[in-house]
Design a protein that fits this description.
alpha/beta; Rossmann fold; 7-stranded mixed β-sheet; 12 helices; about 35% helix; globular
Length: about 350
């Protein structure tokens, strides 16, 4: 379907240029997109990124306080007829101070031909879905035979990582989790264990996970200061590490000595480096995650390689997910059409 036909189909239900579809967080999360479909959509976005068939500047942001950020994340993915921008923020103190989530935001989706906004939707659910999807797709390419997986951080992202990981690592025998808040670990197990066949084990400390797991991921906090929770001496050759929290959680010596340091976006990592998030310097980047999924570059070439694959989130995934939500909502009369 070309762009004009696509616009004509949308115009049967939405007066583009005069109306916009508004979708709440609940409407987005209940839209009916399965885990398998999320993986399909995110893979399509990553492959487009890997083949350079997209437009996406590095995310820019503002920082009213030292521990918070706002990010503006525009993207255009021609193959999905998806163009728009996510405006998202993270306030880690929100749960304690105000009893609300630390991350909230909106995604605006536009008509490619006219540029007019077509949808305004909550973006927290799609962010919570596309982030673990990137991790597990990368894990499936870099370490498909792994029998053990470890997750640091048991918040929203940790829960979804554990839910998703069994989709790509088919030989898993054990999943280890760790969080400084034991209640978070208990919640993850109560939520996810009934829907996955692999035993989920509460780790006693970060050292235990680092020593026992072939594949490791982290979704904790992002700070300019490197916390080095996982020590260099705990990590061995042959492991795959997939952080979602930049350079914060891991001893920077790990990424420096890794045989391959892979990132979702070179441009975005270079931007964060300039902002001071890599105080010891950005490691040498060999390729991007999408290039591996697209078959443009090779991932693991030896079982003894130590690989770090840092994925901090790209708006190509956001707009592709947003377009899917929009299409389903419009076709099923979900959401509220409001005048511009």
């Amino acid at each position: 379907m070309d762009l004009m036909r696509d616009r004509e189909e949308i115009s049967k239900k939405l007066n583009i240029g005069s109306e916009v579809l508004y979708l709440t967080k609940q409407e987005c999360s209940n839209i009916g997109i399965t885990t398998d479909r999320v993986l399909e959509l995110v893979k399509e976005a990553l492959v487009a990124h890997g083949k350079k068939e997209y437009e996406m500047p590095a995310k820019i942001g503002v920082h009213p306080f030292s521990d918070v950020f706002f990010h503006a994340m525009p993207a255009y993915v021609p193959s999905k007829k998806a163009v728009g921008m996510k405006w998202i923020e993270c306030y880690p103190q929100n749960p304690k101070k105000f009893g609300i989530p630390q991350t909230t935001g909106l995604l605006i989706l536009n008509d490619v031909l006219s540029g007019c906004p077509m949808a305004i939707m909550d973006c927290t659910w799609l962010t919570a879905m596309r982030t673990p999807a990137v991790t597990v797709l990368a894990a499936g390419e870099l370490h498909p035979d792994a029998e053990t997986f470890g997750m640091f951080g048991c918040g929203v992202q940790g829960v979804e990582h554990v839910r998703f990981i069994v989709k790509s690592l088919k030989k898993l025998k054990k999943i280890y989790i760790y969080d400084v808040v034991e209640a978070a670990m208990n919640h993850l197990i109560e939520t996810i264990q009934p829907v996955v066949d692999v035993p989920i084990i509460k780790g006693k400390n970060p050292h235990e996970l680092a020593e026992h797991c072939e594949v490791l991921s982290s979704a904790t906090i992002i700070t300019k200061d490197t916390l080095s929770v996982v020590k260099d001496e705990w990590v061995s050759k042959g492991q795959t590490i997939l952080p979602c929290d930049l350079n914060t959680f891991w001893d920077p010596r790990i990424t420096k000595r890794a045989d391959k340091y892979i990132v979702d976006s070179i441009e975005e990592h270079e931007l964060f480096d300039k902002m001071g998030y890599f105080p010891d310097g950005l490691p040498n980047i060999v390729c991007e995650t999408g290039e591996i999924l697209a078959g443009v570059k090779k991932g693991r070439t030896s079982k003894d390689e130590l690989i770090v694959c840092s994925n901090i989130g790209m708006s190509v995934c956001d707009v592709v997910m947003g377009r899917e939500i929009f299409d389903i909502a419009l076709n099923n009369n979900i959401g509220k059409i409001i005048p511009l």
